[in-house]
C-alpha cells in the first residue's frame, strides 16, 4: 500500500481525523484537526509511523545523531523515528513560556539534529526548537512531521534563508482551510471553538 494511503488509513482507524471548529496551536482557526495523539495511543501504529518517516530520512542519505521533538506533540514521534534511525531521542519543553532543554538532555557541538513534529502548520514550534539546537552547537540537517498542513512543500525554506536545501520529510499533506480569528466564518456563525491541542493559550 502506498505510504499516503496507509497513513490515512491509520488516521481513520484511530479516530485522529476530526471535523468541527478548532483553534490550532498557531492561533489560527480551522474546520479540521488531526489529533496525532490518538495514533500513538496504539503502539503498533506509532511504531509504523516512526518507521515510515525514518525510511524517508534514510533513503535521502541524511545522517542523524539526535532526533529532537517539542513537547508534547513531538515527544513520541521523535522517539519512534530515532529508534529506526538508531540515534538518540530527546525533547524540548517550555519553561516560563520559553522552549528549552531540561531533564539533563544535551546536544553536543556539531551533532547532526533532525527536528520532528507531529503536525506542522506555521512551523513556529519547530523554529523554537531550532533556536535551542543552534544555541547548543548542534547542526540542523532536516525537519520531519507526520502531517504537513502548512500549504507549502517545505515551509521552513520560506521561513528562513538558512534552511534552503534542508529537507523536510512528511507522510501526509492536508490543505485544510485556516482562518485568523477575526476572519473566521465559524466564529461569525456563532459556532463554539474548541482547543484540542496541548499548548495553553487564550482563544479570541
From TrEMBL:
The gene is pyrE. Belongs to the purine/pyrimidine phosphoribosyltransferase family. PyrE subfamily. GO terms for biological process: 'de novo' UMP biosynthetic process; pyrimidine nucleobase biosynthetic process. Orotate binds at residues 121, 149. Homodimer. 5-phospho-alpha-D-ribose 1-diphosphate binds at residues 117-125. InterPro entries: OPRT, Orotate_PRibTrfase_bac, PRTase-like, PRTase_dom. Pfam families: Pribosyltran (PF00156). This is Orotate phosphoribosyltransferase. Catalyzes the transfer of a ribosyl phosphate group from 5-phosphoribose 1-diphosphate to orotate, leading to the formation of orotidine monophosphate (OMP). Coiled coil: none annotated.
Amino acid at each position: 500500500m502506498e505510504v499516503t494511503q496507509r497513513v490515512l488509513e491509520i488516521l481513520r482507524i484511530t479516530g485522529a481525523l476530526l471535523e468541527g471548529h478548532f483553534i490550532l496551536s498557531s492561533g489560527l482557526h480551522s474546520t479540521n484537526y488531526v489529533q496525532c495523539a490518538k495514533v500513538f495511543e496504539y503502539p503498533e501504529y506509532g511504531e509504523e509511523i516512526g518507521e515510515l518517516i525514518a525510511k524517508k530520512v534514510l533513503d535521502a542519505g541524511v545522517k542523524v545523531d539526535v532526533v529532537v521533538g517539542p513537547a508534547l506533540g513531538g515527544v513520541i514521534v521523535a522517539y519512534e523515528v530515532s529508534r529506526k534511525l538508531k540515534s538518540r531521542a530527546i525533547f524540548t519543553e517550555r519553561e516560563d513560556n520559553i522552549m528549552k532543554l531540561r531533564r539533563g538532555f544535551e546536544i553536543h557541538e556539531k551533532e547532526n539534529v533532525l527536528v520532528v513534529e507531529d503536525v506542522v502548520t506555521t512551523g513556529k514550534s519547530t523554529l523554537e526548537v531550532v533556536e535551542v539546537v543552534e544555541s547548543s552547537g548542534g547542526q540542523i540537517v532536516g525537519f520531519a512531521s507526520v502531517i504537513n498542513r502548512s500549504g507549502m512543500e517545505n515551509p521552513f525554506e520560506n521561513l528562513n534563508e538558512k534552511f534552503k536545501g534542508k529537507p523536510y520529510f512528511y507522510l501526509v499533506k492536508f490543505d485544510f482551510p485556516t482562518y485568523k480569528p477575526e476572519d473566521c466564518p465559524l466564529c461569525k456563525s456563532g459556532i463554539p471553538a474548541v482547543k484540542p491541542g496541548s499548548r495553553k493559550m487564550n482563544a479570541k
